[in-house]
Amino acid sequence: MKPENEAAVQFPSLSANEAFARQLAAAFAAQMDPTLEELGDLKTAVSEAVTNAIVHAYPDSIGPVSLRLRRLPGNVLEITVKDRGRGIPDVAKAREPMFTTGGAERSGMGFTIMESFMNSFSLRSAPGKGTMVRMRKKLTGRGEGSCKP
Amino acid sequence: MQYTSLLQDKRLTILLSGEIDHHAARETMEAITAKIDVYLPRRCVLDFGGVSFMDSSGIAIVIHTLRAMEELEGELWLANIPPQPMKVLRAAGIEKLVRLGAERSPA
């Protein structure tokens, strides 16, 4: 599907970039006229996906994390978060609520939140190669702010 | 992430403000545990009134604080939770574990 608008950014897996990533997603989504609740939902989903990359993909090192935002027809926002880290050995297990291999400051609710706060969610991971999370959400909008050349 | 605490009649209120994410979680958790260890409250109230954003790191903070209060046979209340953090807490079914205060009315 051809996007009406898009943006992509890459940053190192530093925890300070969690706030940067979700604020960037919110700034991109602003043109799609989201409700306050929708904005909260997508900021939360981005925060979860980027935190996963920071905590799990590169546990003992710093590596690249990429965030791509695409505005698709029908006022749908697509968010892709990709890393080139160690990957997830058991994807089904990782998606279970309350399961975490992180420390005490992790709750194991990241994937559950991404799945329930967004309309669609897909996860691809290859051990040793990296992980990609792709999520879409249809934003209500008010019929304004459409993309014009 | 900033916090202020008040102690009154064995009730420790911790006012949280700013954004709660993984970047801030460990430090916040340690600060809350340190307050509980010093004041040994019967009830701890985490006041979310000033929280502008929270992801699942906030769930971990609540569960960690709950465990610390259970060790003291005390209780944990959550108060003034804005809609966005409330949605995250509800996704984890936190209302089954902890007493939740009223949501702040929308501005």
Q: Which terms would index this structure?
A:
heterodimer, A: 149 residues, alpha+beta, Heat Shock Protein 90, five-stranded antiparallel beta sheet, 4 helices, 32% helix, globular, B: 107 residues, alpha/beta, Transcription Regulator spoIIAA, five-stranded mixed beta sheet, 3 helices, 34% strand, disordered C terminus
What does this structure look like?
Chain A has 149 residues and is α+β, with helices and mostly antiparallel strands. Chain A has one domain: Heat Shock Protein 90. Chain A is built from 4 helices and 5 strands. Chain A has a 5-stranded antiparallel sheet with strand order 1-2-3-5-4, with helices on one face. In chain A, β2 and β3 form a beta hairpin. In chain A, α1 runs antiparallel to α2 and α2 packs antiparallel against α4. The radius of gyration of chain A is 15 Å and the shape is globular. The two termini of chain A are 18 Å apart. The mean pLDDT of chain A is 91. Chain B is an alpha/beta fold and 107 residues long. Chain B has a single domain, classed as Transcription Regulator spoIIAA (2-Layer Sandwich). Helix content of chain B is 39%, strand content 34%. In chain B, strands 1-2-3-4-5 form a 5-stranded mixed sheet. In chain B, α1 packs parallel to α2. The two termini of chain B are 22 Å apart. The C terminus of chain B is likely disordered.
Gist of the model:
Chain A has 149 residues and is α+β, with helices and mostly antiparallel strands.
Overall SS class of chain B: alpha/beta
CATH topology of chain A: Heat Shock Protein 90
Estimated helix fraction of chain A: 25-40%
Main sheet properties of chain B: 5 strands, mixed
Largest interface: A-B, 29 and 23 residues
Q: Which geometry of chain B do the CA atoms define?
A: globular
The overall pLDDT of chain A, averaged over residues, is: 91
Distance between the termini of chain A: 18 Å
Give the strand line-up of the largest sheet of chain A.
1-2-3-5-4
Could you say how many structural domains of chain A there are in total?
1
Order of helices and strands of chain A: EHHEEHHEE
Count of DSSP H/I helices of chain A: 4
In terms of structural class, how would the helical and strand content of chain A be classed? alpha+beta
CATH class designation of chain B:
Alpha Beta
| CATH topology call of chain B | Transcription Regulator spoIIAA
Distance separating the two termini of chain B = 22 Å
Q: State the low-pLDDT regions of chain B, or none.
A: 103-107
Mean of the pLDDT scores of chain B? 89
- The appropriate CATH architecture of chain B is 2-Layer Sandwich
